[in-house]
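From the pipeline queue, job 12 of 40. The input is one protein chain; the requested action is below.

Action: predict structure.
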Amino acid sequence: MTSDPESAAPAGPQGPSSWPGRLRSSALALIVANLVPLYGVLALGWNAAAIVVFYWAENLVVGFFNVLRMRRARGPLEASGMTLNGRPVTEASRSALISFFALHYGMFTLGHGVFVLSFFGRQFGGSWRDGSAAVLALAVSHGISYRRNFIGRGEFERVSFATLFWRPYKRVLVMHLTIILGGAWAQSKGSPAPALALMVGLKTLVDLVGHLAERRAFRRTV
């Protein structure tokens, strides 16, 4: 299977002039969601491991919403250049490609999860029930982006399900390098607030840059 996920063409009409406000609201939701675990550490007594574990859980949220995007996407397939079993991807390939993504991405996430939990699991002193607030905040953030940008701004009409297949991987890989290295450093320093704040800041910056780049790509992709 091959693809050219960066293939793009000139943008069409941009829709309502209110889209920058929608973009700002989804970016703000992303920033707030990333600050929830830091609040948990500083105000609720969580540790660095809690941030790493719950940022890893964002993989599940990212994968879930990418499946929703692949199901809804209606953009032309020709520009993706993707093949499945040696044949160009067609509309008939949608269900198979979504299933393959769920399996492939699921194994990728599981592998990272095993590493994260084996490295940080014993240091994770927070309650899973209380910590679920962090995951919920991340899910809400991604849901806002999906509703306001992908659906509300008509991105689903300009991007194909084949192009969407690879999009989560680069972002998730960079995110993991950031949180694992930052989390390890924070743990080695006894989880001081400056180290934790830097880790959360780097991860938020990575997320925000990726979010804005994705919005630009979706506006021009056909």
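Job complete. Residues 73 and 156 are 4 Å apart (CA to CA).
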